[in-house]
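tl;dr need the bound structure. longer version: we got a ligand (nicotinamide-adenine-dinucleotide) that a collaborator sent over and nobodys looked at where it sits. i said id run it. heres the input, straight from their email, havent touched it
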Amino acid sequence: MVNFKKFNLNDYKDYLIVTDEKLSGLYGIASDNVYLLPQGEQAKSFCYVEKLCEWFLSKNLERQGRIVAVGGGSVSDVVGFAASVYKRGVNLTVVPTTLVAQIDAAIGGKTAINLGTVKNAVGSFYNADVNIDTDFLKTLSKRQLTDGQGELLKYRMLSAGIDNACGKDMLDLIKACVSYKTELCNADMYDLGIRRKLNFGHTVGHAMELSLNLTHGEAVANGLYYETLLAYKLKLCTKNYLDKWQREILTRFTVYPLTDEILNLTSNDKKNTDGNISFVLPDKFETVCLPLDTVKSLL
Ligand SMILES: NC(=O)c1ccc[n+]([C@@H]2O[C@H](COP(=O)([O-])OP(=O)(O)OC[C@H]3O[C@@H](n4cnc5c(N)ncnc54)[C@H](O)[C@@H]3O)[C@@H](O)[C@H]2O)c1
Ligand SMILES: [Zn+2]
């Protein structure tokens, strides 16, 4: 269930809260029922899953208890994973505090931690209640907000309804993204079919994120740019569609050259089958599998 309401610490005084050090300082989230993770990606490790579970145990958290994760996608990913395994699963509420988390990470029940250098190598599917308060977005930096725009562009390209909501009220736009993702996830919780639409932009995007050290949103925007071009070359979308969205992407993001080295990295994508590279392409957003050489000749 997703609620849209103001975050009030008093609403959660009977539960265990996990947040990160930065948010604790910014929003005064501190008491003996609060655990502070380090900021960002470094919290997504087995080490912190162990520390969290030990803390839950020290607080006598029972199977019927509830954990509240307040933070960006890193906090919800690691806390979600810990909540899913502690006593084989306790109740979880996520209060997402970044744009990325409000439109994406907190929705759909995927949890994850990293293993060595492999991102999201370990995780689970575990549903949470979600409480979205857009006031949190006021303390994000410009780069963090731009980062969220990458996923937002993806939703706008996937859904004309979301595109129409853009430029109006931020809360309405977030609600439109949440309801779009929720519908796909309800139909295909385990990512075996229609939910894969959400991977649009991510085959090239992940390769660029890795090789150019971009934020996820910057990389997804680049991925959307090149995957739409690929769709056009395969005659899957019109020139109008290509021009409209490439223009839109260029107004917000820098688009980097696509090198052979980057394209080679798409061979490692989790979604690939039979040695072919898997893409989700407009305008039907179905999966298309292509040999790497074909991709290189088209892009
Ligand atoms: N599970 C999923 O479906 C899913 C989807 C998308 C992304 N993710 C994961 O989410 C992570 C990225 O999450 P993110 O982009 O939300 O960032 P983040 O959680 O990594 O946080 C980045 C920084 O922003 C700070 N921050 C958080 N909220 C803030 C606020 N309101 N004001 C000021 N600073 C704030 C944090 O303290 C941290 O320093 C990645 O690990 C990614 O893999 C998961
Ligand atoms: Zn993404």
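gonna send this back to them w/ a short note. Strands lie at 2-4, 16-20, 34-37, 66-71, 91-96, 110-115, 118-125, 129-132, 277-281, 286-290.
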